[in-house]
Design brief:
Length: 119
Amino acid sequence: MSDQQAATVDILALHDRASARERRERLGSAAVGLILGGAAALSPRSTTRTVLGAAGALFIARGLSGLSVRQISTFVTNLLTRRKDLEKRFNDGAHDIVDAASFDSFPASDPPSYSPGAC
């Protein structure tokens, strides 16, 4: 029986350790971001201030979101780029993003059917 006990793995303990490690990493990243942001606020106006501020913002975003730097970079890039697929699909930009979302969610946007007798 001791061989069987030695072969078991406590999955919940592994999960708790991984969660604690992730929390520590996120808190550390946010703390580093605050320190860099404070250093940027105290530095004179220069390129150093811009670099410190950008790095601080990146670390704070990483700490708050839990995403990697690459994932944050991809998100910001996608957020700031113009979507060519919507321009081609919707008359070269004649429709806005709300129209695009409406077209994309067509089956879900139908109103419920009327049923008399229901309150």
